[in-house]
Amino acid sequence: ARLEFAPMGDTAPRAEIVPVFVHCPGVTELPLLHSSLAAEVCVVRPGTIEQLRRAPNPYEEWLDFERVRPPLLVRGRREGDRFWPLGAPGSKSLGDFLSDLKVDPTLRSSMGVLCDQRGPVWIMPLRIDDRVKLTPLTRRPLRLRLTPASGGGDG
């Protein structure tokens, strides 16, 4: 006989998030995240960067496009993922970051990770990586908007 442990009520295994390359610029459908990601490279006047950095919407992030190493892709978490959370004193593992934020372990497997050629740049929709943040020298900000797939709500 064999004894098996499984989370209660969660009998179906979660579908792994298949990596999806991001249209930049453009809109990319992310069916396993039940959302879409819009990417737009903008031109800004000097002095407006500070306003963008204070954007209050957690589903919208601004990155310095010249610090990003395309192509971008959205994938699920991987063992060993590390990044430098914006505002943190240094890099940490994605697992530690999610633990620090007390993210429910059952939600962790369904989170999207936006990556460039160097690794994670946005743990969606929680935090961007420090290396791609806007600076006063940013000339080409990349606006990213994560939008839930239409299925009700006030959009």
At a glance:
With 155 residues, the protein is mainly beta. It contains 3 helices and 11 strands.
Structure overview:
By secondary structure, this protein is mostly beta strands. It contains three helices and eleven strands, in the order βββαββββααββββ. The strands form three sheets. It has a five-stranded antiparallel beta sheet with strand order 1-5-8-9-10, with no helix packed on it. The chain is globular. The termini are far apart.
Main attributes of the structure:
single chain; 155 residues; mainly beta; 30% strand; 4-stranded antiparallel sheet
Rounded to an integer, what's the Rg over CA atoms?
A: 17 Å
Order of helices and strands: EEEHEEEEHHEEEE
Q: Helix segment count?
A: 3
The biggest beta sheet, please?
5 strands, antiparallel
State the total count of DSSP E strands.
11
Q: Please identify the structural class as seen in this structure.
A: mainly beta
Span from first to last CA? 52 Å
* Content of β-strand: 25-35%
Instruction: Please give the oligomerization state of what you see.
Output: single chain
Biggest sheet: strand arrangement: 1-5-8-9-10
> Low-confidence parts, pLDDT < 50 over ≥5 residues?
none
Global mean pLDDT: 87
In which range does the helix fraction lie?
10-25%
- Estimate the global geometry from the Cα principal axes: globular
